[in-house]
Fold:
Amino acid sequence: MNGAASLVHTLLKSGVDTCFANPGTSEMHFVAALDQIPGMRCVLGLQENVVTGMADGYYRIAGKPACTLLHCGPGLANGLGNLHNARRARSAIVNVVGDQATYHRPFDAQLTADTEGFARPVSVWTRTSTEAAHVGPDAAVAVQAAREAPGIATLILPSDSSWNEGGVVAEPLPVAARGAPDPAAVKGAARVLREGRNVLVLLGGVALTDAAQLLAWRVAQATGAALLAEMSNAKIARGRGRVALERVPYVADVAIAALARFEHIILVNAKAPVGFFAYPGKPSRHYPENAAIHVLTRFEQDAEAGLRALVEELGAPEAAVPDPGPRPEVARGAPTPEGLARTVAALVPEGGIVADESVSFGRGFYKETHAAPPHDWIHLTGGAIGDGIPLATGAAIAGKGRRVINLQADGSAMYSLQGLWTQAREKLPVTTVLLSNRKYQILIGEYHGVGANPGRTAMDMLDLGNPDLNWVSIANGMGVEAARATTLEQCGDLMAQSLSRDGPFLIELVI
Amino acid sequence: MNGAASLVHTLLKSGVDTCFANPGTSEMHFVAALDQIPGMRCVLGLQENVVTGMADGYYRIAGKPACTLLHCGPGLANGLGNLHNARRARSAIVNVVGDQATYHRPFDAQLTADTEGFARPVSVWTRTSTEAAHVGPDAAVAVQAAREAPGIATLILPSDSSWNEGGVVAEPLPVAARGAPDPAAVKGAARVLREGRNVLVLLGGVALTDAAQLLAWRVAQATGAALLAEMSNAKIARGRGRVALERVPYVADVAIAALARFEHIILVNAKAPVGFFAYPGKPSRHYPENAAIHVLTRFEQDAEAGLRALVEELGAPEAAVPDPGPRPEVARGAPTPEGLARTVAALVPEGGIVADESVSFGRGFYKETHAAPPHDWIHLTGGAIGDGIPLATGAAIAGKGRRVINLQADGSAMYSLQGLWTQAREKLPVTTVLLSNRKYQILIGEYHGVGANPGRTAMDMLDLGNPDLNWVSIANGMGVEAARATTLEQCGDLMAQSLSRDGPFLIELVI
Structure:
């Protein structure tokens, strides 16, 4: 057996059965092994940032890693933006990168690059398998490393390690469960909650599952503490029966005002809120300078166990989540953020997934969508725009029929629009609502913050009009049916029709 | 003056007057400075790999660096693929990357990443300006470093260095001329040429200007040596009046056969030919094991001076380049590589630029295009596909009206298709011939090399059909007029029409 075959067998044994791929010449033996060994679903992306973003979306919904198949250092480089987002989402990915044969590398052929150097900033684990016999065992360690962190484990596969005989299939390695909560941290948090006033419990990461939310709700009800979610969440359970959580606001002044009253912040797999960016004369920290920060559970710990221990420590009684009121109806008239949110709430099916890269338009979407049926919501986590279409695509692969609604800003969509083609090829149930404002609206807002109105040169760098992008043509060109809407009722009609289809549909909503 | 203003003034003083941009929030003060200080042409790309590829194409035609404007580590990461190609082309680029404010960086906000770590593998020089007063002087060094190598100089600009007062405009720094040839190397090469049999003079980089070619021709005529160009050339002067150079072949067996007879290889700013990739049982070196390698001039030396010294050392007389025969006519019938090459030769205007990312289809284009009017030809240099559209765009910006014909493989086009929008916005004279074979043809060829026919899973990763990309729709969606051709005469008609237009046009040639 060659190294490539040992890789495929080892990945399958370790439970990795989906491969997001954009292969090149140096990966042909891996492609051949995937072809010859049944069991791996292979999904092609036409640019690497689509591939890595799909792997991120897949993990967020499947809860287990997929592998990637990328081509040499530059192929990896093309996918780093969404690996950055996956790193911030703490998504597990087994990131397989082909490379020059070990003996060919010193000749510095055109595609030779610092593959490990590109990988390290985004990876929790990076290794080059220099012999066929190492590939299987290294792959088993890669799966273990990716799942345990969770994070990105990059396995670099020189082509001779792939084609040489001597491959060995490795058994799956044990993956340690998330760390148990620290009893002292639980007692400390309970003390703060009992004694403190103005306490915020901030939930992030795996503290945003429905089970963890309900425990946090009991804590809040028993103690009067406030609850918030972080601003950028990998996945948050939302809708009826879940807690009507709001997020820490994005805009610095708004966030600072929202957090001003808190004297204590208890972090549950979350980070103390800081600015996405710095601004002259504004603090980096968005919480009050003299607020005390308490950590209930760290990122790698079990948030649900921590919250359950806290509930027990406090003796917090069962507490029902309040009814969020009637389900909204499809809105009418000119598109507004609130109206679009109500329309999504009216139509998202139970068990649906919302992939949100709406950027500036979508900051208030939560408020109007609490009364929707239960669904999952996934965000851009690392700020590297161009994640929405790939995330939606990977989530749809993992969702096995769950409908995905991708709320997608136009400027961001352009970074990874190739993902639409994969949606068409795989006939995925993705409805893209393309928010077409024809500008980098967030940047125009930021420009005003500099204290000036943008002139012609600045607008040349902030305006996506001239010419306007025609998203119906672009989507059609990649095999995705599409239509334009200028009112919310048109958008609602198209969205409702799209939900009964098997494959993808794109609505260009002119906002 | 703030740091951002000092940067713009310093760049302009150093002769950098074109900025390829994809800014973000942390670059708003730089955008404002570009807006307020006249003199910098700013060109927006809707994804960073378009931006960096444009900067590469610009340098190849303008012969001087542009600057970029990229957003934080992930924005830089998105542009690394074409920075890799630019590194292999030895293009000078002043690569300006915004970043978190120095004091905000420790808070590890979402977009914080290892910006320097991403930059170093592609850069000859990397520096973070940590104070406003350093920005101007650092920018002057960046221009010097980029021009002198030539290569990529990455200047990282934390947002507080940009917005703080205390900026200082720096004077341009001297740039050393290319190194003079080594007299011993010239004498050594002359001795080999006089005594040796089966000598190849291999030209690369700046040995491919028309002046250098004519000197190399005199050497070859006087000594009987063979001449070849490297396989991947940053820019090569071609057409009538230039030497009818062929390239070292791409395919290993073909290259090995073509080079088998040579006992001596004299490198003029070139590398001894090695395989693009390794293959089982085939050598990495494509020249004979016992061939002697001689270096006339290294990459950083003056090739033309080296060849002139060699001409003088040999006393090689003036020698006219043979007439390449009549200019071909537009071909007819089903598209073939030879027919398309003849069609290009029939229509490319004098002084035109051919941007060639034709990959497998275009390996024989040179043979049929020698009798075209004088033109420049630029190649994918680093093998990181997705360079053609951005290169063509940047070349058109630098060309100030020179027509660019982009011979563009479809699979590769998908990596950076966003560049079409920039062509439309800037109304650039680019004719794209989109070679639509709806597969990764090069990879299917490589797969057969593995010794098997691709099965369904393999074809799922090698085939771009299902659904077919509709390039007319895609181009229209980005504001570029387009039409489909299925015969060479249709292609020729459309190409001829496109040449009289002001703006871009895309021909989807179904091959």
